Amino acid sequence: MIVSTSTKPSSQDTQTLQEVWLRLTAKSCPHEYNFHMHTTCSDGRLAPEQLIKQAADNGLKGLAITDHHSVEGYKIAQEWLQKTSLGIRKDTLPHLWTGIEITSSLLNIEVHILGYAFNPEHPAIEPYLSGESRSGSQGLTSNVIKAIQQAGGMAVLAHPERYRLSARKVIPVAVDLGIDGVEAFYAYDNPKPWRPSPRQTETVLSLGSHYGLYHTCGTDTHGVNLLQRI
């Protein structure tokens, strides 16, 4: 894996991510890839340096830190990778993509949109980096998706079966708004060891495939172990 020398992703970074997503299976997470994790920069318990070190120690090939309305954890982790790569082979370290989780409003309910491989310095994404959710038009799912994509990134619907409305109702509307993917492999009941929930996974995979969406995976870590949610 390539470790970038800049905190600003390139279009190649987005393409690489898309290629990874096309190969993901239920067994890809949490030991190969993990695209949903939180640090102390939002509501997680791991400092960014602890998270990225644990990811490297676990042998992850790639990951994204998806703090709520913040990319500070990503920046700190990226700096750690750059410093660490000076003393060892870069291909032994995981690839880190930009990530974020943004609270938004869709069908009069709260849904979470994950953003990946975007430029964190782009003006379109700036309103969503304040550490707090947005209200008004900026809080609409349609505008969150647009902002991520305008910043060169990919927008993914997080844990589609955790909302007050079913995935069968939420996903088609998200598709109409331009969503790129769905978090297909997710453990809704926090089992040990971690594994995607079979019933929900089947539903989301079926809908994602029907609409031609990318499928992603993640533990949604908030605790001190990247292999679990809490």
Give a description of the structure:
- By secondary structure, the protein is an alpha/beta fold.
- The protein has a five-stranded mixed sheet.
- Helix 2 packs across helix 3 and helix 5 runs parallel beside helix 6.
- The chain contains six helices and eight strands.
- The protein has a single domain, classed as TIM Barrel (Alpha-Beta Barrel), CATH 3.20.20.
- It starts with 10 loop residues before the first helix and ends in a 13-residue tail after the last strand.
Q: Layout of helices and strands, plus pairs?
A:
Blueprint: H1 11-23, E1 33-34, H2 48-57, E2 62-64, H3 72-84, E3 95-97, E4 99-106, E5 109-116, H4 141-150, E6 154-157, H5 167-176, E7 181-185, H6 198-210, E8 214-217
Parallel strand pairs: 1-2, 2-3, 6-7, 7-8
Antiparallel strand pairs: 4-5, 5-6
Helix pairs in contact: 2-3, 5-6
Q: Rough shape?
A: globular
Succession of helices and strands: HEHEHEEEHEHEHE
Rg over CA atoms: 16 Å
Number of helices: 6
According to DSSP, the number of beta strands is: 8
Q: Which structural class fits the helix and strand makeup?
A: alpha/beta
Beta-strand percentage range: 15-25%
Query: Which fold does the CATH topology refer to?
Result: TIM Barrel
Q: Describe the strand arrangement of the main beta sheet, using strand numbers.
A: 4-5-6-7-8
- Range of helix content: 25-40%
Separation of the first and last Cα atoms: 28 Å
State the low-pLDDT regions, or none: 1-6
CATH superfamily caption: Metal-dependent hydrolases
The overall pLDDT average reads 94
CATH class bucket: Alpha Beta
CATH architecture: Alpha-Beta Barrel
Number of domains: 1
Task: Summarize the main sheet.
Answer: 5 strands, mixed
